[in-house]
Input
Amino acid sequence: MRVPATQFRGQDSQELTRHYNIIKAEDINSRTISLYMDDRKVETVGNDQIWMSDDMTLMIPETMVNDLFQCTAARMDGDIIKLIKGQKTCEIDIQKNRVRTDPGWTENRIAEFDRHGNICLSANYLADYFDYDYQWDDENNTAMLAAPEDEPVSLPVRYDLRDYGRVSEVRDQGSWGTCWAFAALSALESSLLPDEKCEFSVDHLAMNNGFNADLDDGGDYNMALAYMTSWRGPVTEAQDPYGDGKYEDGLSAAVHLQDAVIINERDYSQIKQLIMQYGAVQSAIYSQPDIRSLSAYYNEENAAYYYPESQECNHDIDIIGWDDTYPKENFVTEPEKDGAFICKNSWGADFGQNGFFYISYEDPNIGVYGVSYTGVEDADNYDRIYQTDLLGWTGSIGYNEPMAWFSSVYQTDSENTLRAAGFYATDADTYYDIYLVRDFEGIEDMDRRVFLQSGYIKDKGYYTIPLENPQPLEADQRFAVIVQIYTRDSMHPIAIEYVSNELTAGADISDGESYMSYNGSLWSHMEEASACNACLKAYTDLTPDQ
Output
């Protein structure tokens, strides 16, 4: 009997294709898969790895979707993931292998669990849904994504993180000046929701941050950022409860903050996009004289506040959403146009609408400064952090031009592998090159630097740059991490720690060894010449069996 061309030894072509795809996927996954977005390599950290499924579909961890596609990917009711970008909304049912756009559900297996139990989504489907270009380079084991040219910023008219379970409980700061700490930790908690519900200790942040301030002196996002990027915290509320006037020493951070975007002044589009992607944005207002005392600018009935004059901000809050149609008539002093941010306060649930209130877009103080905590990782992401800038970015230095070089020198305590470097981008559009010098003895060794990698940072903020090729380091070895930086609109592109005022009087400049240069050849010792430390951290893992 003649065997049809579609069969071979009892198997039809569909079965053979499935078998071939499984073998090919295994081969692809046995090698490093590279991912590029708009020609820039996407770094993956820890268990968040891309992989090829048995049907040759590239799978992307749910945690990476927000960044890659500039959208919201929120877990709803356990088994549902909701994708939101502008006016487009899509729901993915993980368990039932179906997708709902409009008008109803259709069968489509686009979500799978990886070997670590993380949910991953199909790159093919996401690219098609968001109108991105997707290509697979078989020869180089590389996936390439490209956003649509001149992709318009499309934002919904109204958005509220509470609708997606991404806002933590409202708390009450009481009589202490700790609004900044509540706002910082609330925004951090929001960035972890809805997947991970946490309550972090305000006492620990407010009292164990290294700055010369007590609970009544207030603070700002820079203090919170320094505390979290140095891994002093956060710790949980259960470990260090609020209001007892003391903090618990010797506690380890529950999570590690690795990235944060500092917003552009009053850039409402940026604020909205960050809210959708990462959760609440910490910001500040001028509270006159005290909204709780029924300020003349606060409408208690509508929980609406608008202070029409520009003042130095004195109260931190979280922006959790917005409503472009919120009536201007709801404010005591009527602004020119409708529209307001939805904000979370730290004055308990009795204030406003269960702790939330509206602030007019025209309030000249909202959004002047703020931060979004965009990169929160498990506390076991790296074994070591080498740093000398415990107070973080307290000033900037440079050569009155956008380009400069800076370096920090450290000594290993055992055999390590250098896996990442962390530093600030002092403004938007920052380009960098990272170098390494082993067995560093003096500035003459800067000429022995070995290039590691280069990259681009879009927004102002703090960033951890994972190394594409981690570097082994010997025990008790002195090494220098060097960064050449170019920040387009900054004349002083190097972030430094120094004693700038009474608040930063506790900055320890003697604990570091930092250098700077205008050309990479002539170097000056920053502690000796400028009484400062470079804000440049090194992250390592211990060599196995250490």
The radius of gyration is 25 Å. Residues 13-146 form a domain with the Copper Amine Oxidase; Chain A, domain 1 fold (CATH 3.30.457.10). The longest strand covers residues 461-473.
